[in-house]
User: What shape does this take?
Amino acid sequence: MRRRRKDERLARVAHVVRDGRIETKDATTVLQALLEPGDRVCLEGNNQKQADFLSRSLAAVDPAFVHDLHLLISVIGRPEHIALFERGIASHVDFSYSGPQSLRLAQQVADGRVRVGAIHTYLELFARYFVDLTPDVALVAADEADADGNLYTGPNTEETPTICEATAFRDGIVIAQVNRLVERCTRVDIPGDWVDLVVVADKPYYIEPLFTRDPELIDDVQILMAMLVVRGIYERHRVRSLNHGIGFDTAAIELILPTYGERLGLRGEVCTHWVLNPHPTLIPAIESGWVRSVHCYGGELGMERYVAARSDVFFTGRDGSLRSNRAFCQAAGLYATDLFIGSTLQMDRDANSSTATLGRIAGFGGAPNLGSDPRGRRHSTQAWLEMTSSDEEVRRGRKIVVQLVETFQESGIPTFVERLDAVELGRGAGFPIAPVMIYGDDVTHVVTEEGIAYLYRARDLDERRAALAAIAGVTPIGLRASEPQTQDLRAAGVVAFPEDLGVRRNEANRTLLAARSVRELVQWSGGLYDPPKRFRSW
Amino acid sequence: MIETLTYEYPASQGVQQRAHVGVVASGNCEILLEPAADGSASIVVRTSVTGFGTTWQAVLKRFFARNPVAVRIEINDFGATPAVVALRLEQALESAL
Assistant: This one.
C-alpha cells in the first residue's frame, strides 16, 4: 500500500524528472505535485546545516493544493519555516528547537495557525521518526551527489542519515538538495538507493557557525566559575568523559584546562573523551595533549582543515573530513559520558530549569537528553559511582548533571526565580506539560559565582533547597538562605565556596585563558583553523 | 544620568593597604578600597544604571556581614551584574589584606 502510494506520487512528476534529477527551476512544481494535504514532511532544518533551497521551494507552493502538512523539523531556524504556517501550507509541527524563530513561532501558535505536537529533545524526535512520526517525504541537504544518487554531506552530516533511514525504508520519498553534482562523491554518507530525487540548489546550503565563542568576550566571573568547575567537580570526581553546552562559561573551562588544569596536574586524568561539536576554544587543550577523542553532532565553520589534521582525535572519513552524526552523538552523550554541563536562563528553587521565557517558544535541542540520568546505563566509572552514597549490594551510579549559571542575567534579571516562566508559557500555549529543559531531580550540581551546591549530597528536599539558596546570591531565592545553615552545609560538604575549594578569586582573570582571542586560537592551531570573517578582527 | 548611592556598615576588622580592581567598562565596575580608621565601612556607589538600589544594598550587606572590614570604598559602575560586583569586592579585599 505505502509502496504503491509512493509509486503513484513519483509517476505524477515523471515528466519533469530525468534520471532522478529535478531541474533547479522545477523544485516547487515537483513539490506541489508530489505532496498531498496532511502529509508528514520532514524538513532538514538542523542545528547548523539547513535544506534552505527546499524549504524556500516548499514555501512557494500553492496552498490551494498543498496545505495542512505536518512538519517534522528539529530546528525551526529560518524565516521561511514560519512562512509555511503563515501561508497555511503546514498547520502542525513537531520539533526540538526554534531559537531564532521562537518569538514568531509563539505568535503563530497564539494565532491558531499552527498546532505544536510536542517540543522534543533531538534523540526523542529522531526516535519518533521510527515509531509514530515516520515521514512521508523527507527534504534533506548535502554537499555532493553523483549519478547514482549517492550523497556526500561534508563535515555537517548531522541528522541526514537518520532522516533518510526513517523515510527510505518505510517507502517514503527522499529528496536531496545538493551544492553540486560530481562524477564520484568525496565520500558516501548516504547510499544512492535511499535517495529518490536530487536537485542542485540555487546556492550552497546555509550553515550557521553556532559553536564559535570569541575568547575576547569571556569575563572574570566566567573564569571564576570555570575554576570552580575544574577544582570542585572535574578534579574531585575524576570526570573523564563529558559534554559541554554552548556558552562563554563552558568556553572558559575549555580555555583554562591547559593553564589552571595543567597546574593541578590533571592532564590525562580528566576531560579525555568528549562528545562535542568541534569548538574552536578546545584547540589549546587538544594541542596540549589533553584530549584523546571527540565525537561530534555536527561540524563548525572554519574547523575543517584543523579537524582533518587531527584525525587521531576526531572521527573522520578516509578523505580526512569530519564525519558527524547527531543521533549517534546524542546517544553517546546520553549513555557514555560521565558529565553534562550547561547553562540556563531560569532556575527555580528545586533546580528545575528552562530557557523558555514568556512570549517565546524556544525549545531545548539536546540539553534535556544530555542533561538527564540514563537509567539504562550499566557500565561504571569512578565519576558515575561517586554520585551514589549507597553501600547496598545492589546499587547504581548516576550521571553528573551540572547547571552553570550566574545569579543574575546581564539585564539585571534574577536567574533564580520563584516560578519558571515556562509554567505560564505552557499553560498559555495549551501544552499538557510545562516546557522544562532540565528537571531538578536530574541535576547533581549547580555552580554560580558564589560557589557550588552539591545537590546529590543533600539528605532531603529542605536541605537541597537550602544548598541551592546558599549559592543563589542576592536573588529572591538566595536571600532566603540562613547564614548558620549555610555554614553547616559548607561543613557537611553540601555547599562549597571558592575558598573551601582553594580557588583564589584574584586569580580569576583573563591571563588564565590559554587563548584570549580568535587570533590566538588560530596561532594554537598552527594556522589550520580558518575562522569565519565576522570573527576576524585583524 | 548617574545615580549616587551611599551605604554604611559596622566593622570590626582592619585591612593592610589600598586596593584598586576592575575597570569602568560596559558590564564591569571599578572598585577603589582604602583602610578606614573609624570602625565602620562606608561605601559610595556611582552607577550608570538607575533603580537597582535594593540589589546594591543586598550585595553590600551580605559582603560586610561576611567581611566586617573597616574600609572606605568607592564603586564606579557601568552596568555590572551582582556577580561582577561581588567578585570585584572579594578581589579588592584579597588584595588589601
